[in-house]
Amino acid sequence: MRRGSRARGRGLRSASRGPAVRILPSQVGPVDGHAPYLAERSPRSRGSVRRRARWALAVVLVARSALGADCLVAWQAGGTDGATRVACRDGDPTCDLDGTVDGSCTVGVALCVPAPGCAAGGVSDVRVRGPGASALAEAVAALAAPGCTAEVPVRVRRGRRALRVSAHDPISGERDRDRLRVECSAPPRRRGAKAIVVTTDFETGLLATVGVRAPHAVGHPTAPIHSDAVVRVSEGRPFIVNRFLGDNIQILDPARGLTTVLQCSTGPGSNPHDIVVAGPRKAYVTRYDARELWIVDPDAASCDGFRRGAIDLGPWADADGLPEMDQMALVGDRLFVSVERLDRTRQFAPSGRSRLVVIDVASDAVVGTVELTGANAFGDASGIVREPGTGKLVVAEAGNITHTGDGGLERIDPATLTAEGFFLTEDDLGGNIADFVLVSPTKGYAIVLDDRLQNRLVAFDPSARVVTRRLLARMAYLPDIALAPDGMLWLADDGLPSPGIRIFDPLTDRQLTTRAIDVGLPPFAMGFLP
Description:
By secondary structure, the protein is mostly beta strands. It folds into two domains: 20-185, no CATH class; 194-275 and 376-529, TolB, C-terminal domain (Neuraminidase), CATH 2.120.10.30. 2% of the residues lie in helices and 45% in strands. The strands form ten sheets. A six-stranded mixed sheet has the order 2-1-7-10-11-5. Strands 3, 4, 6, 8 and 9 form a five-stranded antiparallel sheet that branches. It has a four-stranded antiparallel sheet with strand order 14-13-12-41, with no helix packed on it.
């Protein structure tokens, strides 16, 4: 609806006045001796076809004295009936439904008609104003009987916002107005949070640490690592995945300056790519140059007890006999493993669509597969992404990496094992997607490689399928982006003569670092310790 427009009659209103649900007398006769009421929603805008959505909300009228003005309607939030205030910290999973530090809080709110503990009455108008007003009005309209609506996710930006509801009883003439104040505050600063940075010139690999909080103190742990490595932090534990020709997993102790606790082979020529901890004494390791996914014990006393078993993913290989298993995500009791399916006899060209292989972590049995829309489900430095709010998996599918136009980002529903097609394409973003993060339903960042082989960091709106800002361009490699515990965006920038870490504020897209934070060798991969 255009701003300021007004629906004819009474009912759902424009955003300036707030949606309303109207409850009208029906012609179906009395219920228990009282006139029942049916709900009707009037059209949303001028020119729309007038439709009356009726449902049997049988509201039994009672004596006027039984229903006070404070009983007509009430807010419900945080499990509390009659709530008047909700306070939440951005990213706090106990109250922020998307669990992401994104400059806003998504809180669960419901409306009760009548208020809990009150007798049912004849409420004719329920009008809602403020964030989420339309969705809340829809929820009231969906009520099949007096009671509380389903919980509605309401997103508010940091600060204080008010939701207001009013209700009117035509029999008693009573009116009820209630306000719910929602306060969304910034997450607490974590003094000890730090990034673990893998640095490399692809001849030598070294570790660095960078404080999340300014002035971003840099440290240099002494544990040696391979020149082709990535870092993973799983269940609060840091692992170094030493990849091509390294062929081992290195487990670090954050309490002892990131010293190496255990370093175990994943098999000669296996080229491990990812590790995910699935429970006590159990983790999974993808091996890019092998057929078998390994099951390992990250708490083993020695490497003799490190390997616990294996799962053959050979049935999902292409003609060269290898499935190219890459990244993983754990959703409940299911492990999702991406297999790229590249033909090494044709210089790693895609041989059809990529897959996600689904494994039950209790039995270690393959319980399903998901065929993706595109090929080459590629993730060089980061695992499979979970979408804020929905919890769906999001995979970047690069297709043929030598040109653009055949790939994009795709959602996968982990409950139904359904690939939903590209919601953003390479054409939308302007190149092959090398890495990406999702901040909110309307904000994300990606590193894209265009046809001129230029690397660019772009901000985009997933809902509108548009690039909203171009933040940085380099002919040099931009290998990794990640969201820090405080919600800031970190970029690994290999650009000479001053490679390092750059930090951006997702609220403004402004770069917070005046120059790249020097971590020694060029940065390649990042993980965060809380």
